Task: inverse folding
């Protein structure tokens, strides 16, 4: 079978499975998740063996250490995968929920009912645990899934998929509800992105190149995450001790994550006090600061920030710094240079807090908390298939609800239109 | 200024206006709507004069009667436009609403806040009242709007836009919050569809050609409405008198609307009784029926339906008809041939009604009511910018809420991540 036909057939099977998944009862879906979790634990050795083949090929191919680490399965990671599926089983099932039921003047009752999106395509790189995580969320939200992992993790992914298939079938659900694309040929991605007939949404997870390719080629909606250029603004009415703690945590708790602070904005009136504390702390943590002219007078050792710096997601121990007049200048900076991901104000002033929350146009807007909290688990969503920086449909961490939609339901007793 | 620059500047101004609109208070937005309504009424003669120029050019250009009728402004239509704006002023403002506020184990409080999408581009044909309707909904939902009407209605649209600008300014809002593109050059549409930097969503309203062009060229999300191939399924457990009334109304109340029934499905067991009544009624209404083989035995006068018929949105006094075994066969037919717009079951059986509501994957699913109710006004949304047949973001009639999104709001008191 050629690749075009293979992907078409995969999509068609997914669509058929999606109809069954859409009407599956909650306990059946939960049984599939629980059974898959048990099978994954039982099959630990087989998963490690499959992963060893991938690790071997990747090492030979010269994959770098960071990527090798992401690729590796360990007994702990396998436990975590199973545990993740059990957590998803415990989440409330959004499907079938009716809201806003209201009788209209004509006598019809109108409500909105939450329904699955249908077929979710997920294109990801390296980490094989995404196979189980993403499949679990899609399964619980009544969708069928087509997973396309990185070629370096193909054996691991197929071994995990085999566990999921058994779990689905044991619960009486179709194995086709979760399909892993079995070829590593890159043409498969292109074919998948054109398959709008059968695929309702694509979620790319990986580096910027992947996301840009998917966004430009996909003929269906994409839930995507571009840059995370996150800001902390320390207001002159902030609790400065708290502000220092939050800014330091937002930058240093982890460097490579999308919700890490990349730019610190400080109100002029408190800049001296704040930077006298934060400067040495960042220096000790080996964080390179690139600052505006004013800030360089307070922290003479630091580099000058360029325009480009303010537009950069470093994902590294580097940050930019700007002293601003007030909340307005801070919000203007965020609007111009930010990526609408996560931005925080530290202030004790309720009115400014409210203004920031309402006016800053980002998927997560925070008052007095580290930007590192922008995360599905921390928000109580249980897990996330990704964080969306788009405004359309799902915004911010995308959990079960982001994989659903609402349709209108009308219940009448014979009403006709006059 | 060339057209590319003109559209770019229009987009940039809209983005700036959008920031102001996003934080505008409800009473200010309502004042702008009320003032615009008054100005439209005061300016009746000027609007009629501008419309006369368009009507004259269109008549000379040989526009057909139906389109001329859509283009024409009358005193009654001007009253309706003003009234529509006042109705929108009365709708609840969705912006700023916080939902799902919940404290997480870390101590942070997480909620979702409803916010505008930003800049909404609307591309429409002929009917000048869309200028006021769409602008009103966008204004109330805190968005800025760029409107591109048909070239045949340019003078009418600009005259209406002038009223809106005065209304906005009188209320202290920026005139740029509603901009009508002043050139009729078709290049302007292409430029607008590429302007993803400033335009957050495009809503095309018009014929299939327009919608297909917009869908394929737009670099931003599109809220669109494709076919309305709506079904009524008469179950064997239906109240047959009610079923006949609903099917007749769904087809004949208006022929040219997207929520008109295009295909009737009847359960075998009741087909004879139902068609003996409905056949003559449709005949008398001059509705041409194209039926399956079985139905042609019961209604010998009718034409045979082809595969193509079942996939056709007639928008005319023509309909297809198929006798099916049961609800399963009906739902299969709807899945294969339908357009996921609006589908109805007539049945007295609660369980079948629930199955149909849950399993039929359409933006509106109905029990015992005419498909003609699928409409923003009938659903209590007040008005609609369109009906979406997509599953992503807004589904079904798109009112104020469909022009908004939800962001996450996090309120802490100094929490950092461990």
Result:
């Amino acid at each position: 079978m050629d690749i075009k036909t293979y992907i078409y057939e995969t999509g068609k099977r997914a669509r058929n499975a999606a109809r069954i998944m859409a009407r599956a009862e909650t306990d059946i879906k939960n049984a599939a998740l629980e059974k898959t979790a048990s099978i994954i634990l039982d099959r630990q050795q087989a998963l490690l063996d499959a992963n060893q083949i991938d690790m071997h090929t990747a090492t030979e191919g010269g994959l770098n250490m960071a990527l090798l680490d992401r690729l590796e399965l360990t007994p702990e990671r396998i436990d975590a995968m199973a545990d993740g599926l059990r957590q998803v089983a415990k989440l409330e099932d959004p499907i079938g929920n009716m809201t806003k039921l209201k009788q209209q003047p004509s006598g019809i009752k109108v409500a909105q009912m939450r329904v699955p999106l249908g077929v979710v395509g997920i294109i990801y790189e390296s980490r094989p645990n995404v196979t189980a995580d993403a499949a679990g969320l899609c399964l619980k939200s009544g969708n069928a899934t087509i997973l396309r992992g990185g070629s370096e993790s193909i054996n691991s992914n197929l071994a995990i998929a085999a566990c999921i298939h058994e779990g689905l079938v044991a619960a009486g659900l179709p194995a086709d509800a979760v399909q892993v694309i079995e070829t590593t040929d890159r043409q498969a991605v292109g074919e998948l992105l054109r398959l709008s007939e059968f695929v309702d949404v694509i979620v790319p997870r990986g580096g910027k190149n992947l996301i840009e390719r998917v966004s430009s080629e996909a003929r269906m909606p994409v839930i995507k995450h571009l840059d995370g250029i996150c800001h902390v603004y320390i207001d002159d009415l902030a609790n400065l001790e708290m502000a220092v703690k939050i800014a330091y945590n937002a930058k240093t708790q982890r460097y490579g994550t999308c919700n890490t602070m990349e730019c610190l904005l400080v109100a002029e009136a408190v800049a001296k006090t704040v930077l006298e504390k934060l400067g040495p702390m960042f220096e000790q943590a080996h964080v390179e600061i690139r600052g505006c002219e004013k800030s360089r007078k307070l922290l003479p050792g630091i580099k000058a920030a360029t325009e480009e710096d303010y537009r950069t997601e470093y994902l590294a121990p580097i940050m930019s710094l700007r002293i601003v007049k007030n909340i307005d200048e801070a919000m203007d900076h965020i609007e111009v240079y930010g990526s609408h991901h996560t931005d925080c104000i530290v202030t004790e002033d309720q009115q400014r807090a409210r203004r920031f929350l309402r006016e800053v146009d980002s998927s997560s807007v925070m008052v007095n908390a580290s930007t590192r909290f922008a995360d599905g688990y921390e928000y109580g969503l249980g897990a996330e298939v990704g964080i969306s920086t788009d405004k359309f449909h799902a915004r911010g961490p995308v959990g079960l609800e982001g994989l659903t939609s609402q349709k209108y339901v009308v219940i009448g007793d014979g009403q006709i239109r006059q």
Observations:
- Chain A has two domains: 3-223+396-411, 230-378.
- The longest strand of chain A covers residues 404-415.
- Chain A has 15 helices and 16 strands.
